[in-house]
TrEMBL record, chains A, B:
<dbReference type="GO" id="GO:0045892">
    <property type="term" value="P:negative regulation of DNA-templated transcription"/>
</dbReference>
<dbReference type="InterPro" id="IPR043135">
    <property type="entry name" value="Fur_C"/>
</dbReference>
<dbReference type="InterPro" id="IPR036388">
    <property type="entry name" value="WH-like_DNA-bd_sf"/>
</dbReference>
<dbReference type="GO" id="GO:0003700">
    <property type="term" value="F:DNA-binding transcription factor activity"/>
</dbReference>
<dbReference type="GO" id="GO:1900376">
    <property type="term" value="P:regulation of secondary metabolite biosynthetic process"/>
</dbReference>
<dbReference type="Pfam" id="PF01475">
    <property type="entry name" value="FUR"/>
</dbReference>
<feature type="binding site">
    <location>
        <position position="92"/>
    </location>
    <ligand>
        <name>Zn(2+)</name>
    </ligand>
</feature>
<keyword id="KW-0238">DNA-binding</keyword>
<feature type="binding site">
    <location>
        <position position="132"/>
    </location>
    <ligand>
        <name>Zn(2+)</name>
    </ligand>
</feature>
<keyword id="KW-0479">Metal-binding</keyword>
<keyword id="KW-0862">Zinc</keyword>
<protein>
    <submittedName>
        <fullName>Fur family transcriptional regulator, ferric uptake regulator</fullName>
    </submittedName>
</protein>
<comment type="similarity">
    <text>Belongs to the Fur family.</text>
</comment>
<keyword id="KW-0805">Transcription regulation</keyword>
<dbReference type="GO" id="GO:0000976">
    <property type="term" value="F:transcription cis-regulatory region binding"/>
</dbReference>
<keyword id="KW-0804">Transcription</keyword>
<dbReference type="InterPro" id="IPR036390">
    <property type="entry name" value="WH_DNA-bd_sf"/>
</dbReference>
DNA sequence: CTCTTGACTTAGACAATGTCCAGTGTAGGA
DNA sequence: TCCTACACTGGACATTGTCTAAGTCAAGAG
């Protein structure tokens, strides 16, 4: 995710060890970690990084659109580095595994005008639920 | 929601003033209250009802399928008495208003087999976001 | 109708997640 | 190398939800 760090730098943000580690920890496909999971992994590389910094850095990455917040359950929000390819989520009801998926068509198109109640509708988030292969 | 109370009774549950008040407070269309909002309204009718009882009663109603839990943001879960008609949600990004909506077709049909990663997919929850008429 | 009893309710402690602040440290330009 | 505005830290605090021990009461039995 050096790309992400470069974008931060271009915005005039200082590149610190903490921000670098958070970006590294969040790299990969189908990554959807909670803030505390990011903190635990970051601590392994940079022992004294604080919870506040992890929350701050994740929040900043969300603000600039490089990371997406995903709330698939009523628990902790998850942070998703796959911000440049619109996608939806498939969640295992038993173990919580999250996969990125791309449904066909635009989900917004399924909501007819007479079901919009005068809203200006701009986005649709879909969470598919089921059991993953490991959970039968 | 005397219907709901009757179902509780049929399951051998005692009908108490607390359960009656929670059921009454949750009655209506497009109702999506948080547990604390339910508690505040219930307190107006039954001053000493406790938070624990509100949480317990809502959880019981969810368990028997008479109420649905809705998590449209990363904040408090909302409780929805419209449990017998499958529907999705339209949320105002500014004021948080939630409306029940019925998209056309089955949302599950939009997820092709090669995007299911071997999961047994059983449900899809859609949250539409936009601005309500009052929020321009 | 009254009694009995096990289910229900309560208050408050505790847990999980997230926010905020004052004091300290440092990245990066001058 | 030095300065200083910005970032980081530890901890207090806020919100949302769970749990438990002790008191209360709904509803069936007699
Ligand atoms: Mn994702
Ligand atoms: Mn609803
Ligand atoms: Zn699983
Ligand atoms: Zn609105």
């Amino acid at each position: 995710m050096s790309d992400l760090l470069e974008r931060l730098r271009e915005r005039g943000w200082r590149i610190t060890a903490q921000r670098r580690v958070v970006a590294e920890v969040l790299d990969g496909d189908h990554v959807h970690l909670t803030a505390d999971e990011v903190h635990a992994r970051a601590t392994a590389r940079l022992p004294e990084i604080s919870r506040a910094t992890v929350y701050n850095t994740l929040g900043e990455m969300v603000t600039i659109g490089e990371v997406i917040e995903v709330a698939t359950d009523g628990r902790a929000k998850r942070y998703d580095p796959n911000a440049h390819h619109p996608h939806q989520h498939l969640v295992c009801s038993r173990c919580g595994t999250v996969r990125d998926v791309r449904p066909t068509g635009d989900p917004l198109a399924a909501l007819p005008a007479d079901e919009r109640f005068g809203f200006t509708v701009s986005a649709a988030e879909v969470t598919y639920r089921g059991l993953c292969p490991d959970c039968v």
